[in-house]
Amino acid sequence: MERYTLKNLAAMLLSKDISSQEILEMYMQRISDYDKSLNCYITLNKDDAFEKSIQADRLIESGNTLSLTGIPYAGKDIFCTQGIKTTCGSKMLENFIPPYDATVISNLSNQGAILMGKTNMDEFAMGSSNETSYFGPAHNPWDLARSPGGSSGGSAVAVAAGLAPISLGTDTGGSIRQPAAFTGITGLKPSYGRCSRYGMVAFASSLDQAGILALTAEDAAILLESLAGFDPLDSTSVETDVPKYSQSLDASIEGKTVGIPKEFFDEGLDSESEKVFFNAIKIYESLGVQFQDISLPHLSLSVPTYYVVAPAECSSNLARYDGIRYGYRHDETDDLDNFYLTNRQIGFGAEVKRRIITGTYVLSTGYYDAYYLKAQKVRQLISEDFKQAFKSVDAIMGPTTQTPAFKIGEKIDDPVTMYMNDIYTISANLAGLPAISHPCGFVQSLPFGLQIIAPHFAEGELLNLTHLFQQKTDWHQKQPPDLKKV
Amino acid sequence: MEWEVVIGLEIHAQLSCKSKIFSGSSTNFGAEQNTQASLIDLGYPGVLPVLNQEVVVMAIKFGLAVNAQISERSIFARKNYFYPDLPKGYQISQYELPIVFNGSLEIQDQKGAQKKIGITRAHLEEDAGKSIHDKFKKTTAIDLNRAGTPLLEIVSEPELSSPEEARAYMQKIHQIVKYLEICDGNMQEGSFRCDANVSLKPKNAIKLGTRTEIKNLNSFKFVEKAIAYEMARQEELLNGGKVIVQETRLYDSNIDETRAMRTKEEENDYRYFPDPDLLPLEIDQSMIKEIRSQLPEFFEEKVQRYVNDFGIKENDAAKIANTIEIARYFEEVISVFDSNNQLVASWILTELLSAMNRNDLTVDQLGVSPKSFAKLLQRITDGTISGKIAKEVFISMIHEKKDVDDIIQSQGLEQISDERDIVPIIVEVLDSFPDQLEEYLDGKEKILDFFVGQVMQRTQGRANPSLVNEILKKTIKNN
Known about the structure:
Oligomer: heterodimer
Shape of chain A: globular
Number of strands of chain A: 11
Strand order of the largest sheet of chain A: 1-3-2-4-6-5-10-11-9-7-8
Radius of gyration of chain B: 30 Å
CATH class of the largest domain in chain A: Alpha Beta
Strand content of chain B: 15-25%
Radius of gyration of chain A: 21 Å
Structural class of chain A: alpha/beta
Helix content of chain A: 25-40%
Distance between the termini of chain B: 79 Å
Largest interface: A-B, 43 and 28 residues
């Protein structure tokens, strides 16, 4: 198998070593060969993509190219795509065809990128294993019996297994970084407000952020330049310039200071994982990075805080799925309450219902102060911890997860254990900070990820650090074993 | 026992913006169902609200007009409940921190004294769509054109002490929003409606009684009548030793009764929380200052100006200024015809208003421009037509939409002011009534009016009455 980076493909297109149509044919062939065992795509956009690739080839021929002309990509099935089914991994939206494109999708189309298909995900992005998908779990290419993580599992698998050069995901509590770590690729969650949320089916609005799953930091940098930016349709997107990330990748990181929070090593991390992580730190030290121990005192509260805030917002965001205007509709009911109940009972899976119920509870009269309000206060404290830390360090590093990919079925019946999976990633969402996960070694023959968190809008810092690490190491080039054609 | 009523009103004023509060859809009334609803109004997956800044300016204007505080930081919250005409499953409103708070205005109480009524708050929110239950058999239809229409909800303190005061307060708020041009005030279309909270307590007691809330009152008359009915209902229950159930009630104007809609136990738990899709609304002092400098002249100032500058009776000035459209009309007439301001005032308060009421039209719909109206009055003062004929001309102007002079000419309505035309008629009248003439000569001066009447009758009212009077006396004397 050969995996191509976005950068490779762009160079090959420009030198006319390959056409956009040929690239697309290659990926479509791989999808048809391997996706039955990987299950990373829910919907393919074959005809439209081929049509666009032909147009792209004409543009390339005439020399009128944009930054992504002819480059195919995969999009998580949470982004609305005009005329293309957008299921959000749910029976509720099994047949939903949006009449509009999400802003991030149009941002990429505007630069000439071609959407190949929509990737598998946990239902409404609620899950850490891709197992809550109504369309069945995606499988980790490193070991098909294992989960690729979630919720952006399909997007991670597509890139790791060479079924797409790059993909879009979303990250509400770790949904890009954890799957990237589990599948041995690079996953970037930008700062809250960096990319528009318009057209991204909402799970927890104050935490959701679109981002990138890629083979290299360099690819992520190139794509982010097109993806990011202020959107007048999203009041929470931020009006600040988008830097040329790809041009500062090689800047020296000598003398940078990075903090390692001691709380990451309190419990749950096994010794092999810890060893792999600290070996990676040695590479950074060799690049001139200085490390210091820091503390994020409220880190242990991040999971409980998240599981109040996210369900609260989700309970309200998902109220619109009532079967009246779109979505799953059970017609054999004759009264309004039953109509609602039946549609939602059948349309939503167990995890989504669990979170709606939790969220409804924490917002109810009499419980609001004890749960929602308190969680918001703790969230503030967590943000303050980071603010404090960034007074003395440029970035924070730690493992992305406590373990490498677990087996499908291993944790799905134990929600609390599943929730604890995101213990290292959730705090960046609560504080709205950018974070990246990149491969840093192997644990039990499975890829392991290192996470870097930076101050608001310092995505450039994350990409710069990761890129130089990737110049020194080849963990990111390790490929999953060859798959059998099915 | 003697009871005292305590009333508080929640008024919903639809803000006159071209587009909705969180989307670019039009807010025009009466468009075909579901043609003015965007993906945002329909609550599609992935869409986000963006605040229409126009509504912020309007809310601030209102706040300044009622001497309220303007919040430097206010928060939009989600009010969660399921209903088919509420597409998102929540309504975006302001809950803990409204944009306007702590204001007041003055009304006249029953004794005619000024009474200050507190305005607790005014907040911005979106309207829901409409459920139509009576159009299809066994099916409810949904029209989402209204979904997302901007509303300002104005909440009074429970300081109104009678149905009449409630009406006066509602009228005052109506006058203010119309003066500010932030609401068209159209109650039939639902642009201005209110909910009334009503409770009774023993006279002079401090503790308030259990209240009921009467929903969706869309006329001044209904507010007064619904509250009066509700007072009587509660009084009867209390006097019979029963308790009041806290509940929402509906007023049926056809039978003049309120009836229970749902009790407190059946109310939703709205699970309010700040809307994470919208940033806190921040308003700086310079914006408030800017808006303050653009505030219009208000009712009280107008009345004073009409009295001082135009010499209008205070009572008439207040009646004219009461409705901004009438005040504007009045001022426009005066701007082209200023030789008899009181005549203008009197004509507006009698002929213009009664024509509007008779035809159930607004002053604009009546179709007589202030300029034409001025010309009509001009024709009275220059003696072309009499006041009485002018009233007929005015009616023709409304129905025929023709110019004043054209009507006078084509219908031959000019006043007869030439002595040579009037004398023969007078002679004829005196000849026809020798007995009455005898009586007059005997000193019964009142008979003169009879002769004037006869002359007017024979000229179809066109003879100049004062001239007739004068010539009559002269003719009799000379005989």
